[in-house]
């Protein structure tokens, strides 16, 4: 034990401790960017090393955090619901559809307000009991036990 690598055990322990405290530099393939500014990365699966699923993540732009909503196409890619990342054409098409829906909703709202309409009020209900059916008599119909 006085020879070789075992001679400097404390040096090995300290070197491993210092290396474990260093941040790891994870290198992934940049897969795309969305209109918010998030950058998406992937490390592909490698079955020869026992890694069956790819690792996917994103980095938000400076000033934004991970609580902001993601586009649906990218979120489905991150959660492994789709194999391929979304294309620019698909993102642009879905963004145009969402914008058109917002504009149509605003037109409908202005039309409703111009007609003098208001939001429908929920019906007022008092305390309600269980439904009763004429062909079912459950419980104590003669009230003989209610004494």
TrEMBL record:
<protein>
    <recommendedName>
        <fullName>NADH dehydrogenase [ubiquinone] 1 alpha subcomplex assembly factor 2</fullName>
    </recommendedName>
</protein>
<feature type="region of interest" description="Disordered">
    <location>
        <begin position="108"/>
        <end position="147"/>
    </location>
</feature>
<dbReference type="Pfam" id="PF05071">
    <property type="entry name" value="NDUFA12"/>
</dbReference>
<dbReference type="GO" id="GO:0005739">
    <property type="term" value="C:mitochondrion"/>
</dbReference>
<comment type="similarity">
    <text>Belongs to the complex I NDUFA12 subunit family.</text>
</comment>
<dbReference type="InterPro" id="IPR007763">
    <property type="entry name" value="NDUFA12"/>
</dbReference>
<dbReference type="GO" id="GO:0045271">
    <property type="term" value="C:respiratory chain complex I"/>
</dbReference>
<dbReference type="GO" id="GO:0032981">
    <property type="term" value="P:mitochondrial respiratory chain complex I assembly"/>
</dbReference>
<dbReference type="InterPro" id="IPR052618">
    <property type="entry name" value="ComplexI_NDUFA12"/>
</dbReference>
């Amino acid at each position: 034990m006085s020879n070789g690598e075992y001679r400097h055990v404390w040096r090995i322990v300290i070197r491993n401790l210092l290396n474990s405290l260093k941040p790891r530099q994870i290198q992934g393939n940049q897969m795309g960017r969305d209109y918010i500014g998030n950058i998406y990365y992937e490390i592909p699966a490698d079955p020869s090393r026992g890694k069956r699923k790819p690792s996917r993540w994103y980095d938000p732009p400076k000033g934004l955090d991970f609580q902001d909503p993601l586009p649906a196409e990218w979120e489905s890619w991150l959660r492994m619901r789709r194999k391929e990342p979304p294309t620019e054409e698909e993102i642009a098409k879905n963004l145009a559809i969402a914008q058109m829906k917002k504009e149509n909703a605003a037109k409908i709202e202005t039309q409703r307000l111009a007609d003098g309409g208001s939001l429908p009020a929920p019906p007022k209900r008092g305390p309600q009991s269980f439904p009763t059916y004429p062909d079912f008599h459950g419980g104590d119909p003669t009230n003989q036990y209610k004494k």
